[in-house]
Specification:
- By secondary structure, this protein is α+β, with helices and mostly antiparallel strands.
- It is built from 30 helices and 19 strands.
- The strands form five sheets. Strands 3, 4, 5, 6, 7, 8, 9 and 10 form an eight-stranded antiparallel sheet that branches.
- A hairpin with a 2-residue loop joins strand 9 (about 290-295) and strand 10.
- Helix 17 (about 480-490) runs antiparallel to helix 23 (about 590-605) and helix 23 (about 590-605) packs antiparallel against helix 24 (about 610-620).
- The longest helix has 26 residues, at about 340-365.
């Protein structure tokens, strides 16, 4: 096959593996007219923005847009803008005109010759129309505009091209006109041009021009919406006056910069929908020119956007490719009239994104959403190819206690499904470095020459500061109050130093902890490269359901750790291996953060957090000073702090508890609360909770005589109630706020369960 031959040639030429080009879902036989020297295809992630309510001429109803993009926060911001517009009654859209241009240039002997030709051409309109019809029955010559510069004449032909973008169609029609001119004027020396160019660069093809801004090229489409005061404050998290004021200031900046048109970031929507629907990506430049207007409308706003040069089509070019055709079908843009609908959809979502972005800039969310950690030096971060024999050799030798161990081969295995929430958040904070879970097949010989091959997983950790920054990116979309509160309190959460904490856990010598951990084959902690790696055994979940007996066994397993350190919290803090542990008073002092997150979720997703649940959480936050003080007087210990089925496996008959990056000092019942919230369901009874608490308390007491005394001397049920308050106030609030921007599939059911647990305690 020709494609594979080209791929083989390219590999030989570049020494690159090019494994991602090996397979493609495209049929080379169907790509004639789309690409030459076809070698493979590249995937671009597609996210769904919206829905957005349209009240347009061609686009009507609730529409979801597929955005093909690699830019984080784009889909979330467009969706937020779509929600604001929809709640205010939708967006009104219309296509004002549709034109595609081609502008040949003619050279004459002198100025007079150019003038004579211009006059003659003006008399030939019917004959020009005939030439166009010879090329295409879908193309209509709309305007002929001559522009003379000395003895040179540029003629701007404008065509209506139905559902095609029309670049090829207008080129063919213009070429037919030029051939006809050459033939008909062959013997007319006083009219015949000396030379001709099919395009003299006046049409503005794939360029941003003032002429196209005024006269239009492609679809000239506009969208308008009215935003109520309530929607601006609750969804966009700012005020109408602040948006109007900032709009006036940025208009001045645009004028100083000589900007063509005035917009915010229509290019994001244009590019994303162009990729998704098979448009000519080279036209993004001119198609993204926009004019945005924002005015006061009573106590709300009226916003209007104009895209004068939107070069789109629903037939021809890349629109026939299978994925792109499916996206057009999904949007209802296939068939006659589809191009007008597509143009209106792009304009509507461009306006939605512009309003969301303007609000983000005004309220300070924009900086948070795009923050990058500042560094005073260049860091040689780990990259994909760095997980090799050179890196793993010292890790395994140290981890296996065999200085003569020699790693002979490291093979990358297929990626696991999902890297975990912490890794994803860290990637939001810093995208340029390698993080996540990386399965490897590692082969080595030990000091005695015996060979071993094992399936391992390299857990490459993001820095705690990057996790904090990633959370800030999500919270920046939750409103000004939440963003400000996170900037004040976020750095003092349990996420700080999470990368060091988990490595410290794996270094601990205590058998009670080692029995729970996955087998560790080596650790890397390199501050210079900001590289933090744990080399673990690879294990698989057994897939068994979390029935009552299984929950009992999990509680007994973690209880051994709780019992070992129960009452030794000061000792743990003094040793320092847990690194940053927030002071107990932090919960009470940081109430503004948790309140802002709760109020945002209740407004943004009332189906998840209704008024009753909201008031429960606000009550817990308001009383935090009292119950936090009470909790601090109860026995505390080392807790996993993320103890749910997502971080537990049963492998070879033993419980394995992993992902210890949030381990901290707290009430032992904290891990019980999280386990029950994820497993027992909303039909559990108070007796069920009693039984689970008894199982846990007995297992903690069995760990040591000292633990038995502390368990007996404390109100175990009260400790559970206080731990439930902490879970609801902090972890649940963070989950709920994150869910508004990045869906957590487990959250709705977990919330039903945890609020049921709360009701059982009242």
């Amino acid at each position: 096959m020709a494609r594979r031959q080209r791929l083989h040639w390219l590999r030989a030429r570049t020494d690159a593996r090019l494994a991602t080009l090996e397979n493609t879902g495209l049929n080379p036989q169907n790509l004639v007219g789309n690409v030459e020297n076809f070698v493979g295809s590249i995937e671009v992630p597609v996210g769904l923005a919206g829905p957005l309510l349209f009240v347009g001429e061609a686009a009507c109803g609730s529409i979801v847009a597929p955005l093909a993009t690699t830019e984080g926060a784009l889909v979330a911001s467009a969706s937020r803008g779509a929600r604001a517009l929809t709640m205010s009654g939708g967006v009104t859209t219309t296509v004002l005109s549709q034109r595609m241009t081609r502008a040949p240039a003619f050279e004459f002997a002198d100025i007079a010759g150019a003038r004579r030709f211009t006059a003659w051409l003006g008399e030939q309109r019917d004959r020009l129309d005939e030439q166009v019809r010879l090329v295409s029955r879908h193309t209509r010559l709309a305007e002929v505009d001559p522009y003379q510069i000395g003895r040179h004449l540029h003629v701007r032909f404008s065509f209506e091209t139905a559902d095609a973008a029309g670049q090829n169609m207008t080129t063919a029609a213009t070429w037919q006109i030029c051939r006809w001119l050459t033939d008909v004027l062959a013997d007319e020396d006083h009219l015949r041009p000396r030379s001709m160019l099919l395009e003299g660069n006046l049409s503005g093809d794939k360029k941003m021009t003032a002429a196209s801004l005024v006269a239009g090229r492609g679809s000239r489409v506009t969208a308008e919406c009215r935003l109520s005061h309530e929607v601006v404050t609750t969804v966009l998290k700012t005020t109408p006056n602040a948006i109007v004021k900032s709009h006036a200031v940025t208009l001045l900046g645009a004028q100083q910069a000589g900007m063509t048109g005035y917009g915010v970031n229509a290019a994001n929507i244009v590019a994303a929908l162009f990729l998704a629907t098979g448009q000519d990506v080279a036209c993004v430049h001119e198609s993204s020119v926009s004019s945005l207007s924002i005015e006061v409308d009573g106590d709300g706003l009226i916003a209007t956007i104009l895209l004068p040069n939107l070069v789109v089509g629903t037939v021809g070019g890349g629109t026939g490719l299978p994925h792109q055709r499916e996206m057009l079908d999904m949007l209802g843009c296939s068939g006659t009239g589809g191009v007008r609908r597509l143009a209106e959809i792009i304009a509507g979502f461009a306006l939605a994104l512009d309003m969301s972005t303007v609000a983000a800039v005004v309220s300070g969310q924009f900086a948070e959403a795009h923050q990058r950690l500042g560094r005073g030096r260049r860091v040689e971060w780990l990259r994909e190819g760095d997980l090799d024999t050179a890196l793993l050799q010292p890790l395994l030798a140290q981890g296996m206690g065999d200085p003569r161990l020699h790693v002979t081969e490291v093979r990358r295995m297929p990626r696991l499904h999902g890297d975990g929430i912490a890794s994803e958040l860290g990637a939001l904070g810093e995208r340029r470095k390698l993080t996540g879970l990386h399965p490897l097949r590692v082969t080595w010989t030990d000091g005695n020459g015996s060979g071993t091959a094992a399936d391992l997983v390299a857990k490459v950790k993001a820095r705690g500061e990057e996790i904090v920054a990633g959370i800030a990116t999500l919270i920046s979309l939750c409103g000004d109050d939440a963003a400000r509160a996170w900037s004040h309190w976020g750095g003092d959460t349990e996420f700080t130093d999470a990368h060091r904490r988990e490595l410290s856990v794996y270094r601990r010598p205590e058998r009670v902890l080692k029995d729970l951990l996955p087998r560790c084959h080596g650790l890397l902690e390199d501050d210079e490269r900001e590289a933090y790696v744990i080399l673990l055994e690879r294990f698989r979940h057994d897939g068994e359901p979390w029935v009552r007996d299984r929950v009992d066994d999990a509680l007994r397993a973690i209880a051994a750790v709780h019992g070992h350190w129960l009452g030794r919290d000061k000792e743990l803090l003094h040793e320092g291996w847990l690194h940053h542990v927030p002071e107990p008073e932090y919960l009470a002092r940081s109430g503004e953060l948790w309140e802002a997150l709760v109020r945002h979720t209740a407004t943004d997703q009332p189906e998840l957090l209704d008024a009753t649940r909201r008031d429960i959480l606000l009550g817990i936050i308001g009383e935090a000073e009292d119950w936090v003080r009470e909790a601090h007087l109860l026995p505390r210990t080392l807790v996993h702090n993320d103890f749910s089925p997502r971080n537990i496996a049963v492998h070879g008959g033993r419980f394995i508890v992993y992902d210890w990056e949030l381990a901290t000092i707290g009430l032992p019942q904290r891990d019980v609360v999280e386990m029950l919230a994820f497993t027992i369901g909303a039909d559990a009874t108070a007796a069920d909770v009693d039984r689970f608490l008894t199982v846990h308390a007995q297992a903690v007491a069995a760990a040591s005589p000292e633990a038995a005394v502390l368990v007996t001397g404390s109100d175990w049920r009260r400790g559970y109630q206080l731990a439930l308050r902490e879970f609801l106030m902090t972890r649940l609030a963070l989950y709920a706020a994150g869910h508004t921007q990045r869906e957590f599939g487990f959250l709705p059911q977990m919330m039903r369960t945890v609020f049921h647990l709360w009701d059982l305690e009242q």
